[in-house]
Amino acid sequence: VPGAPRPRPASRMSDDGRIRARAVWRRGWATDVHIRHHLIRVDEPPSEGGGDTGPMPTELLCAALASCFCLALRWVAAKRDLELPGLEVSVRADRAGTEPRYGRLVVEAQVALPLDRWEPLMARAARVCWVSNTMAGGVDVEYVATEVNARFQE
């Protein structure tokens, strides 16, 4: 219906606008991450003492950026009635020297079309990609310790 509010996809956020992920340690370096009704096993490779039963957390960081940017490209292309055949987005993370972090992420997109037909969409997609916007804008990270069953004490 023209002018009617568009429903917010249930997959984006909870009713209060927050995304929640819960990690539960299983064994060794493996955790099970629960997000809505999805379960993702996260682990480290054997070279780091893990069992390699799932991707590493830093790989999921790259996956979040790659998938979000892929969807953002598709969204801006669809608004212009442009198909992006063979759309793929990959992310490469470069270490920041010896620090325990990555200092550079390179997002590379490819489409089975001439570049002049779709490359201008890259900047538009970057503006609507929630993951890259969160990283680029900086984000406050707060660490809170909670006792087991604390939520039931009052």
Provide a descriptive summary of the structure in words.
The protein is α+β, with helices and mostly antiparallel strands. It has 4 helices and 5 strands. Strands 1-2-3 form a 3-stranded antiparallel β-sheet, with no helix packed on it. A two-stranded antiparallel ribbon has the order 4-5. Helix 1 (57-79) crosses helix 3. It starts with 21 loop residues before the first strand and ends in a 17-residue tail after the last helix.
Which key features would you list for this structure?
154 residues; alpha+beta; two-stranded antiparallel sheet; 4 helices; globular
Secondary structural class: alpha+beta
* Continuous helix count: 4
Task: Give a quick account of the main beta sheet: strands, pairing sense, barrel closure.
Answer: 3 strands, antiparallel
Over the alpha carbons, how many angstroms does the gyration radius reach?
19 Å
Question: What shape does the CA trace take?
Answer: globular
**What's the SSE pattern?**
EEEHEEHHH
Low-confidence stretches: 1-11
